[in-house]
Amino acid sequence: MAAPRTYLEQTSSSNLEIISIHVNDPEKNQCGRVEPTVPVDNEFDYTQRAQWLRAAVLGANDGLVSVTSLMMGVGAVKQDIKAMLLAGFAGLVAGACSMAIGEFVSVYTQRDIELAQMKRNHEKKRISERVDNMNEEEEEDIERETLPSPVQAAIASALAFSVGAVFPLIGAAFITNHKVRLGVVVAVASMALLVFGVGGAVIGKTPVVKSSARVLVGGWMAMAITFGLTKLIGSGGLLM
């Protein structure tokens, strides 16, 4: 027959059980209080914006720089306001169509490549795991819905290009003096480039100063090169 335990042994055993419960409970601290669980913040993945942000910024900047440079080139050899506006409008229409067609073909090619890869993956999965045909078709339909739309990409690129191209046209539309018109076109284009650079940096959470400076300097270089080369050709007797 086992000897009965003393009061000291019973007390020690009870204390050990209490301590063990408190130690093993992750939601309680040493005083027995429940620790509040701190939720982990799910930060937004800004890389998800990269594709459409790239297309929008590229289209707007391309429209702004292309049409402004074209108007500066015409203004280097022609003082007529109608010539500048006509050249700018033609550049807007041609550039928007070019951007739309180029983006449509590019995205459609990417879509075909991804669809072909999806079919190969599903074929391998069906052979290795013997997946039911119904489940495979549903999964493939869901994946198709996540693919980029060529039509949407084309429309977005054309609209972005047109928005950028409108700024120099508006800046030159009401200025009759030739030199003042050229200065206003450069000033308006520079402000628009800064706005596009800052907007793209803020949306994409990138350095604002670096992004804005890169966009602005690139635009200035395009305008200066176009103006200088056209002026050189015009002064060389090749002007028609």
Automatic annotation (TrEMBL):
It is a multi-pass membrane protein. Signal peptide: none annotated. It catalyses: Fe(2+)(in) = Fe(2+)(out). CDD domains: Nodulin-21 (cd02436). InterPro entries: Ccc1_fam (IPR008217). The chain crosses the membrane at residues 81-101, 153-175, 182-203, 215-234. It is found in: Vacuole membrane. It comes from the Eukaryota. Pfam families: VIT1. Keywords: Ion transport, Iron, Iron transport, Membrane, Transmembrane, Transmembrane helix, Transport, Vacuole. Its main location: membrane. Belongs to the CCC1 family. Vacuolar Fe(2+) uptake transporter. This is Vacuolar iron transporter. It comes from Xanthoceras sorbifolium.
